[in-house]
Automatic annotation (TrEMBL):
The keyword Oxidoreductase applies. It comes from Actinomadura macrotermitis. Pfam families: FAD_binding_4. One of its GO terms (molecular function) is FAD binding. Keywords: FAD, Flavoprotein, Oxidoreductase. Belongs to the oxygen-dependent FAD-linked oxidoreductase family. PANTHER family: BINDING OXIDOREDUCTASE, PUTATIVE (AFU_ORTHOLOGUE AFUA_1G17690)-RELATED, FAD-BINDING PCMH-TYPE DOMAIN-CONTAINING PROTEIN. This is FAD-binding PCMH-type domain-containing protein. The keyword Flavoprotein applies. Residues 35-206 form the FAD-binding PCMH-type domain. InterPro entries: FAD-bd_PCMH, FAD-bd_PCMH-like_sf, FAD-bd_PCMH_sub1, FAD-bd_PCMH_sub2, FAD-linked_Oxidoreductase, Oxid_FAD_bind_N. Its cofactor is FAD.
Length: 437
């Protein structure tokens, strides 16, 4: 075990909430999904007051502070070496505030699988990410691309208010009327403005969805990707697909999962017509399932630094033949990589580019490579550059690098200038600063 360099002098109000090296719980609290850290202390916050106390004590003692909700950051930045980790996993409440309006309040530590399970009891669902072990805190402050994205938009598009502890310990509520700048930043660049201690989100009435899994041969000419994109463009917004490029022996295969936000099997069949009217899939399986079958508590696992892959993404305005060939080439030259594709044309495009800190509102395709070791970030960057030629933006939550280039890709142009200004205004000392600016 690495020895932490500095000790944390816990203030009395955090008594019993601090886990340090040597404590039996330290082994599982030191790490995230992507990184083993060696923090001086992990503070298990119960509420905003604990968060403010940890923040003040870390700053007084000159220790770095890291905010963690679910510990799924691709960059591993939700742990550190020698600093304080503010762990919000215990702040995991899921509360239905108004069933008719679909308004729910979520704690940052709630995992999306648990959120889906609780809301299913009320016949509601949130457009979140796909993975049930990812938590609200990181996803709902960065973007949120999941199975309902075409119909209901990004997670941040459905956030109606957020409670935030600022760097100076002040607790504020941000919404369309109060602290509007902060509310803007929380929806896409929230990691740099404070600790979000709860979010109010609009959920949608939804019980079952149609799920179809298909596989198609994908040749180097990229035609399978172009066909998939054309079928998605012709499909109603109820249909969202997640796809990935994989190898099946010597051939590449595009594995597509389509989720259809419709309860009626006939409506599901009709919605899938464009996807199913192309070339015959190598295989296809269809079923009706509860939403919780896709965003599931079965995804929950402990985070022990087990995922060391490098990742980034590209947000493409369309799938041209050239972009498709670039994606096929990237998948081929990155050994062991998995290239994920999602068609996000739909509700995210209805939101103006300057309405939230998630700028990429013309994007129709989200493409993200996951490149395992011994492959490095530099190898990945070189292989992915031809893809960026077709769409230079990226989604901050899939960046494994914490370099300034990740900021420029995630927050381009006027959005980037405003994010920088707000990160500096709300966090002048750079306590939270997730990326250099
Ligand atoms: C296996 C896997 C699957 C994924 N699937 C999807 C997906 O389908 N869709 C999608 O959109 N994304 C997905 N992601 C990316 C995911 O959105 C990000 O990794 C997200 O940051 C994870 O949130 P977390 O709270 O679990 O992470 P954490 O590691 O706890 O937090 C990540 C960072 O977010 C910031 N942060 C966390 N909590 C707060 C808070 N309460 N207030 C302010 N800042 C905070 C901090 O800077 C922190 O370092 C996936 C990631 C993985 C590893």
């Amino acid at each position: 075990m690495t020895t932490a360099a500095a000790a944390f002098a816990a203030p009395p109000e955090l008594a019993g909430r601090v886990v340090e090296p040597g404590h039996p719980r330290y082994r599982l609290l030191r790490s995230t999904y992507t990184r083993v850290g060696s923090p001086a202390a992990v503070v298990l916050a119960r509420d905003a007051r604990d968060a403010a106390a940890a923040l003040a004590a870390a700053q007084d003692q000159g220790l770095a502070l890291t905010v963690r909700s679910g510990g799924h950051a691709m960059s591993g930045r939700s742990t550190n070496d020698g600093g304080v980790v503010l762990d919000l996993s215990g702040m995991n409440g899921v509360e239905v505030l108004d069933r008719a309006a679909g308004l729910v309040r979520l704690g940052p530590g709630a995992r999306w699988g648990a959120v889906a399970e609780r809301l299913a009891r009320d016949g509601l669902a949130i457009s979140s990410g796909d993975h049930g072990n990812v938590a609200v805190g990181g996803l709902a402050t960065g973007g949120g691309i999941g199975w309902l994205v075409r119909r209901y938009g990004l997670t941040v598009d459905n956030v109606r208010a957020a409670e935030v502890v600022l760097a100076d310990g002040t607790q504020v509520r941000a919404d369309e009327r109060r602290h509007r700048d902060l509310f803007w930043a929380v929806r896409g660049a929230g990691a740099g403005v404070g600790v979000v201690t709860s979010v109010e989100i609009e959920a949608m009435p939804l019980r079952r969805i149609g799920v179809v899994e298909m596989a198609f041969e994908a040749k180097a000419d990229g035609k399978a990707l172009v066909r998939w994109a054309a079928a998605m463009a012709a499909s109603p917004r109820e249909v969202t697909t997640g796809a990935f490029l994989a190898r099946d022996g010597s051939r590449a295969v595009l594995v597509v999962t389509a989720a259809v936000a419709a309860d009626d099997p006939e409506a599901v069949r009709a919605a899938l017509r464009p996807l199913l009217s192309g070339p015959r899939p190598l295989q296809a399986k269809a079923r009706m399932a509860p939403y919780t079958a896709l965003v599931s508590t079965a995804h929950e696992h402990r985070n022990a630094g087990q995922q060391r892959a490098s990742s980034t993404s590209a947000l493409l305005p369309e799938m041209t033949p050239e972009a498709a060939r670039a994606l096929m080439r990237a998948a081929r030259v990155l050994p062991g990589a998995m290239v994920h594709l999602r068609w996000i044309g739909g509700a995210p495009n209805d939101v103006a580019a300057d309405a939230t800190a998630f700028a990429h509102r013309d994007a129709k395709v989200f493409a993200s490579p996951l490149f395992p070791p011994p492959g490095t970030w530099d190898d990945l960057r070189r292989a992915w550059e031809p893809v960026w030629a077709h769409g230079p933006g990226s989604y901050v939550n899939f960046e494994s690098t914490t370099g300034a280039d990740a900021f420029d890709r995630s927050y381009p142009g006027a959005t980037g200038a405003r994010v920088k200004e707000l990160w500096r205004r709300y966090d002048p000392g750079g306590v939270f600063r997730p990326l250099p600016i």
